[in-house]
Amino acid sequence: MASTQGTTGSPFAASVEPGSFRVTRPQNASDVTDLLRQHDIQIVDLKFTDLPGLWQHFSITLPEVHDDLFNAGIGFDGSSIRGFQEIHESDMLLRPDPTTAFVDPACDTPTLSMICDVVDPVLRQPYSRDPRYVAKKAENYLRQTGIATTCYFGPELEFFIFDSIRYGQDQHCGYYYVESGEGDWTSGRDEGAYGGGNLGYKQRYKEGYFPVPPHDTLQEIRSEIVLRLQQAGVQIEVHHHEVATAGQNEIDMRFATLTRMADNVMIYKYICKNVARRHGKVATFMPKPLFADNASGMHCHQSLWNDDQNLFYDAGGWALTSDMCRWYIGGLLQHAPALMAFCAPTTNSYKRLVPGYEAPVNLAMSQRNRSAAARIPMYSDSPNARRVEFRCPDPSANAYLAFAAMLMAGLDGIENKTDPGAPLDRNIYDLPPEEARNVRQVPGSLDEALAALETDNTFLRKGDVFTDDVIETWIDYKRTREIDTIKLRPHPWEFYLYFDT
Q1: Could you say which of 163, 250, 314, 394 is catalytic?
Q2: Domain of 310: which CATH number?
Q3: I need a surface site. Which of 242, 262, 264, 468 has the fewest CB within 10 A?
Q4: What secondary structure does DSSP assign to 302-350, as a single string?
Q5: Does the keyword Mitochondrion apply (predicted)?
Q6: Phi first, then psi: what are they for 283, rounded to 5°?
Q7: How do residues 312-341 score in pLDDT, each as one tens digit?
Q8: Is the pLDDT of residue 473 over 80?
C-alpha cells in the first residue's frame, strides 16, 4: 500500500489526530516535567537502539529526572549491548532527548518513555556506533551540501501476527512451527481445541489483500495498534490486511523527517508487538517467515525539500519528476548492492528478494510498476506528492542506519548526476531473457551484500556520517554472529534432498 506522502498539502501543516486531542511534542526538559505532572507519571523509561536495531531500555524513578539527566546523562554498561563496547571500555552514558517523550501506551503503570542518545563518557561526545547519531549526522550532512534543507521518509512496514510460534535447533534436531487461525493450511483442521469448530474463511495463499472480516480476523487488533500509536504521537494514515495468508498486515505512518521517522519506526514495532501480546498473539517483522507466500517489506518513500518546496517535482519531467529526483534514484540504484547490507540486513531478507512474490529484485526505475526497485507512485499529480519509493528494504533493518544510508546514496547520485537508466514501465519479471540479462539485480545473499559494502562505502563516509568503525563493526557482526552460524547448521530441506544419497 503506498504512502500518501504529500497529498494533503505542505508537510508543515498542523498535525491534528482524530478525536478530541492534538499531539504536541515536548520541546525541552521543562515540558517533560509538565508531562510528568499532567499524567501522574510514576516511572520514566529510557530507550535506545543497539547496533542491529532492537530497542533496549531501563527505568528510573521520578527523583532521578532532573537537569543533569538531560545534560550529563546517566550511566550504563555498554559491553552488554550488541555491537557496542568491549568489557574494558564498558562505561557509557544515555542522554534522553526530551522531544521524544511520550506517555507509554504499552505500560499499565503510568510511564513516560524517552528515546536517548548514546554518549562516550571519556570523549564527552556522541558515540560513533549509536544508530541514532548516524541518522542525525546524515541530516546534518544534507544541510551542509546545500542541496536541500530536509529529507522526508515514509516507510511502509509490513508484519505478521501469528497465534503462536515455536522454533528450536540443537545438535540433533531443528524446526519451526507457525500457528495461525487465518492460515490457508488450517482449512481442514479440527479446531475444537481452539474454542470451537472450524469456521472457515481462511486466507488463501497470496489472496490476503483487502478482504473484510470475517476473513480479516485482525481488524480490531490493528485498530487498537493504530490508536495506541497515535497516543504515542505517531500519526497514522491507513491500516489493512496484506497479501499473504496467516495474518500479514500493514499500518502506514504519515511521513516525517529522517531521524524522527526512524524514532517512529521503533515506537511502531514496540507497540505492534505489545498489543499483539496482550491479545495472546505474536507480531514479527521477520521478512520471510512463511514458505511459498509473500514476505514483509519496508518500501521507503523519500523526497528532498527546500523549506516548503518539493525538489523532486517538475511539471515537465518524466512522471512529473525533476532531474534531481532522477539523479537521486541513480544513486540508489548504483549503490544498491552495498545499501542492501543495511536495508536488507539478515540472511532471511534474501528469502524475500526472489522473483515472483512482488519482490523488488530488479535495479531499475519505473512509474507505478511494483516489479522495479525504484518506483514513482502516480496516485496524485500534486507537486507535494512527488517522491521515489525504494522497494528493496525490509522491516528487519535498523531504520536509523537504513534511512541514513539511502539518503547518502541519493545525495551521491545528485552530486555526480548519476543516470538511473531508461524507465522500465513493464512487468520486468516477464522480460525476454535477452532483455532481462541487461537489468542488474540486488545481491542474492547477505554475504554478497556485505562484500559489496566492503568495496563500495565512500559515499557513506562523506561528512563522517558512517565512520569506518561503524562499517567495520557492522560487517564483522553480521558475518560472525549471523552468516557463519547459519552456515554451520543443516537445513531441514537438506534432509529431503540429500538423506538418501
Answers
A1: 250
A2: 3.30.590.10
A3: 468
A4: EEEEETTEETTB-TTSGGGB-HHHHHHHHHHHHTHHHHHHHHS-STTHH
A5: no
A6: -100, 140
A7: 999 999 999 999 999 999 999 999 999 999
A8: yes
**Cell triple for residue 225?**
495498534
Q: Are residues 292 and 324 in the same domain?
A: yes
Which residue in this structure is represented by grid cell 541487461? 438
Element holding 486 (H helix, E strand): helix 484-487
Q: What is the CATH number of the domain that holds 40?
A: 3.10.20.70
- Residue 254 annotated in active site: no
Active site includes 242? yes
Residues 159 and 88 in one domain: no
Written as nine digits, the cell of 477 is 557482526
370 is catalytic: yes
Same domain for 163 and 100: no
Tell me, yes or no, whether 52 and 100 share the same domain.
yes
Q: Where does a domain end: 93, 126, 159?
A: 126
156 as an active site residue: the answer is: yes
| Amino acid occupying residue 300 | C
Q: Which residues are annotated as a binding site?
A: 156, 158, 237, 242, 250, 294-295, 299, 301-303, 352, 358, 370, 389, 391
- Cβ–Cβ contacts within 10 Å for residue 142, how many? 22
The answer as to whether 389 is a domain residue is yes
Give me the amino acid identity at 136: K
Give kind and range of the element (H or E) at residue 436: helix 433-436
Within-domain flag for 206: no
Q: Which residues are annotated as a binding site for Mg(2+)?
A: 156, 158, 242, 250, 299, 389
* Burial (CB count <10 Å: 0-12, 13-18, 19+), residue 149: middle
Catalytic-labelled residue, pool 77, 381, 454, 494: 77
Please check whether residues 338 and 462 belong to one and the same domain.
Answer: yes
Q: The pTM is what?
A: 0.94
Instruction: Assign 117 to helix, strand or coil.
Output: strand
Q: Residue 480: its pLDDT value, please? A: 98
Q: Say what the pLDDT of residue 411 is.
A: 98
* pLDDT tens-place string over residues 132-146: 999 999 999 999 999
Clarify whether residues 324 and 380 are in a common domain: yes
* Shared domain check, 162 and 86: no
Sorting pLDDT into bands at 50, 70 and 90, what band is 193? low
Total domain count, the chain: 2
Taking only the tens place, the pLDDT of each residue in 399-454 is 999 999 999 999 999 999 999 999 988 777 778 888 878 889 999 999 999 999 99
- Torsion angles phi and psi, residue 322, rounded to 5: -85, 170
Q: Are strands 248-253 and 282-284 parallel, antiparallel or unpaired?
A: unpaired
In a domain, 250, yes or no: yes
170: domain range? 150-174+218-499
